[in-house]
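Pinned message: reference record for Ubiquinone biosynthesis accessory factor UbiK
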Amino acid sequence: MNMQFVEDLSSKLRETLSKSPAGDLEKNIHALLQSAFTKLALVSREEFDVQTEVLRKTREKLDALEKQLSALEQAQK
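Predicted structure (tokens):
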């Protein structure tokens, strides 16, 4: 789900409600939907990809440090 989905859903609801006496509910429904999706703590694909790359680099550094530690331990023996 992304913000485009929320906007499309909101737009369809707004259009439907504007044609009915329940038009005043549109603002409340939009706010309710925004709140619900915000609580899901969703991230964009771009942010996910950035964090995946950060994690990959961190893993590489950790692997290198583990190798250095292992070599130092072997040198002490």
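Pinned by admin. Summary line: The mean pLDDT is 84.
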